[in-house]
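Hello forum,

I keep getting stuck at the same step: I have a sequence, I want structure tokens, and every attempt I make locally crashes halfway through. Rather than fight my setup again tonight, could one of you with a working pipeline run this one for me? It's a single chain of 280 residues.
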Amino acid sequence: MGEAPELLCPEGYAAMALRTPTIPPAEHTACYVIGHEAALVVDPGSPYDGELEKLLDGLIYPLRGSGGAVRGVFLTHHHPDHVGGVSQVARALDAPVLAHAETLARVELDGLQSEVVTDGARFAPDAGREVVAVHTPGHAPGHLSLFEASARVLVGGDMVPGIGTTVVNPPEGNMSEYIAGLERLAALDPEWVLPAHGPTFRDGRAKIEALVDHRLQREAKVLAALDAEQPRELMKITAAAYPEVSPLLYGLASRSTLAHLEKLERDGAAQRTGDDWLRR
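Reply #2:
Ran it on my machine without issues. Output:
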């Protein structure tokens, strides 16, 4: 088990990396606490009792002991490494679960109180501070990021990873939506990015724009792997588009290739023929 990432945070934010059953190279999911007076606890993702005790005793109960209060447990999306501890933490805090409707429909809440969060919903974790929910699907249909404009802080969930790469896996994953979501986040001009996996980082806009460029470069390789007359199999396209990847990892890479192909199909540049693909 590797060391937990360093989670330096701007004022008004606290974090703890929790061990979760996530996708390597990540081994932890960051749980963030935003604010003090009406704090948001974001993505208590660990299903392990010891990790949740560490979170409650080390981060959340001290907040309440100092006069703070918890507004709710906020979920960026429904994947297991983000929701593994939501029931235990929400019950321990007697707090509602806050998430997009698409997320709430996919999470077992065991009778917990919940509230639907829509794009543009605003929260005031402290007097004079406001964070806004930003609907950023693509990785997951109900994915929400949180942005505080005055401090230029983005809590990005799985949209902007600090380690590894974000999986875009059809049919739930949608590359068109994912890239559009990245472009929307870049336009917010964040300075700080607090990701779910890996260390926090600064100069967020440049990092996000680099991610968009990387995805479009990969899309160009996928397109170049297509032929206008001879349909090609997904795995052959994957091998051509991911020359640096071991064949042992083609299973995961092929899901991203499929997401790019579906985007190219929507853009009118590719055509599906059964299980194979043509260039248009």
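The CA atoms of residues 163 and 198 lie 5 Å apart. If your local run keeps crashing, start a new thread with the error log.
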